[in-house]
Amino acid sequence: MYLEFMQELMESIGVSVHRISPPYIVEEWMDLGLRAEILNISDPNALLSDALSQLPERTIHHFTDEFLCNYTTFLLPDSGECFLAGPMLFEAISESRLDELCEKLSLPPELRGTLQSYFCRIPVLASQPMYESTINVLAKHLFGDNGFGVVYSDPADMEGWYQFSQNYLRIPEKPFLSIQVIEERYAVENGLITAVTNGNHTKAMEMLSKLTKNTLPPRMPNALRDHKDYTITINTLLRKTAEGAGVHPIHIDSFSNQNVKEIEQCISLDQLTSFLRKITIGYCRLIRQYSLRNYSLLVQKVITYIDTDLCADLSLKSLSEQLSVNPNYLSTLFKKEMGTSLTDFVNHRRITHAQRLLLSTDMPIKLVAQNSGIPDIAYFSRLFKRITGMTPKVFRETKTYQEFQECGKAK
What we know:
Blueprint: H1 2-12, E1 17-20, H2 34-38, H3 46-53, E2 59-64, E3 70-75, E4 82-88, H4 95-104, H5 112-119, H6 128-143, E5 149-153, H7 159-166, H8 176-197, H9 201-213, H10 223-244, H11 249-265, H12 269-290, H13 297-308, H14 316-323, H15 327-338, H16 342-360, H17 365-371, H18 377-388, H19 392-398, H20 401-407
Parallel strand pairs: 2-5
Antiparallel strand pairs: 1-4, 2-3, 3-4
């Protein structure tokens, strides 16, 4: 049970976890094909497979390879299986760090871009101590509080593997990993668009998590500027997604423009990542609330007119004149598509708005009525009670804004 939980936890943050049975054959997933694709090594992990077969029992082994990628491995009790987590990074590989690594490994310039694309596929964990503490908790459940040891290895301890790689450095004939990274990013972006189109918060967050794990290769020296530009790009994609889902631009425009302003105000990559989540959830909500894709163009226009200004003259006569259509035709079409009369629809929209004002402001009830498009306070009170089952005063005293949001509409 603990192992299954750990595997699911690790994979949720992008870290691959495998359980390998003897004779511990390690395939390309070990390094995501780095040595096979970039270095042209036919059996890149032969030395590692041999090392795994010699692991001492009850020992957690954390090791770092010559490419700064980190792994954790140990033998599982009573099974002979080997637990292997990785690759992962504990630092984002900046331009200067990449230059330093290429120089240290004596990599030819032609390999730099391919290695950069490789790093874009590796999850970057925010805290190495937190990760190792999590592994220790798992080990305590498996081996007991004092029943295991911990060993750390770095490239200096793995000279054989390092030299093995050095002998095979080559210039790649095709940028295989670059292509794969781009394909994966586009697939995740498309998954995000599909989720937002359906107003699916859960799926959108899942896609966004994958998107933020697969970082883009740096395009500018300033990483913050680079990520701001990409966040603005995602905002634009989701803005057009909302429009394509049937949300009128009047509901999208102010939200989208405000997003760009706030993106520019972000001062860290973590802040940008957090704000991107807020943007995505916001577009999901816009679509859930305002999507009109299932209605005819005429009914879409009517609803947009109503939502734009509840204090305007929203009578059948006025809307018909505004849209240059026959009132009887409009009335019949609206009732057919919406399942309610135009007048009742407008009344419910106005009372829903009044509910929001009553619970989120201290505005006097008379002003609430006026701002909801019903200046006659007596008529407003009667209509409010008919739709909600209580007077505006009682509603304000007995309900909370959270209850109103969960309800979603006037009853």
